[in-house]
Design a protein that fits this description.
136 residues, Rhopdopsin 7-helix transmembrane proteins
């Protein structure tokens, strides 16, 4: 069972969500920038020196979704087995359902889709470049 009070449970869940979202958002930004640099070098150069802005955007994005349950859009609570805390997945209200749905779409589906598309585009560019080199 969870050994601490609700405040520690909320802090634990908040940190888990924040750092998890930040990690996936960082990987998404990294794959997108790599794709721009490999596939579209002219556009890729415009992001040189903007790492701080991108990191700030990643943290702001993750922070927005992680603080939503603190603002009563969704909630944090014990996991079903009661040994840790996370987002309360069993939505009890329409707002909680909307939070879980938006979290799924904007923090899982879209980032994963961007990562897959970025790497697929890079692989395609490398394949086409390899063919062009072989022809010459």
């Amino acid at each position: 069972r969870w050994l601490f009070d609700q405040a520690v449970c909320t802090l634990y869940a908040f940190c888990g969500v924040l750092f998890g979202l930040c990690s996936l958002a960082s990987l998404t930004v990294l794959s997108t920038v790599c794709c721009l640099k490999v596939c579209y070098p002219a556009y890729g150069r415009c992001w040189d020196g903007h790492a701080a802005v991108l990191l700030l955007g990643v943290w702001a994005y993750a922070l927005a979704f992680a603080t939503a349950p603190l603002a009563q859009w969704g909630s944090y609570g014990p996991e079903p087995y009661g040994t840790a805390c996370c987002i309360t997945w069993e939505a009890s209200s329409r707002e909680a359902t909307l939070y879980i749905l938006s979290l799924f779409i904007f923090c899982y589906v879209l980032p994963c889709l961007l990562i897959v598309v970025s790497y697929a585009r890079m692989l395609w560019t490398v394949r086409v470049s390899r063919r062009a080199v072989r022809q010459h």
